[in-house]
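Appendix B.2, paired examples.
Example (i):
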Amino acid sequence: MKRQFLRFALVGTVATMTTYSVLIVGVENLHMNAVTASIAGYMLGMIVNYVLNYRYTFSSVQRHHVVLPRFVLVMVMGMLINAGVMYSGINWLGIHYMLAQLAAVAVVFMLSFTANRLWTFTTQKVN
């Protein structure tokens, strides 16, 4: 599990860099709302996350039609939590959007690892 967690963290770092890139470009260059830019980045990061976690972290042998809907559900829940933390951090606590995103990543990271390990990429018989 330790090795798998480290791989998940590495994949998460790549996906987070993707999210942050879209967030920064969206806010600073495209003048988007930070929560909206974060959601856009999260969605692009989700694609990176799926491909790398399927192959590298969990070495899944499950068929995509089984795993992908589960993964999307976990990621949508994570996106909602991410948006909630971003909104709360920026609008209620008055913190900079980059710090709010950092807090969101920390919360979502642990929840998504647990859900993906225990449910999304579980090893079951391939039919």
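Example (ii):
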Amino acid sequence: MGRPFLFCCPLTGLNVQARNEDDEPAPAGRARYKMFECLACRGFHLVDPSTGKLMSDPDGGKGR
């Protein structure tokens, strides 16, 4: 079982829990985005599991 984390669905504004099955850390200073199914909107989002940030976040998905 992977490590659970939270991210905010950009469509509903709800916090969603997901599990990261890959425990390999991201390279220093870089984000590692993975696709997760959203339980709130039933869509898919690109999320960095180590931070919970979405690629579509206002910072443009640039790192942490």
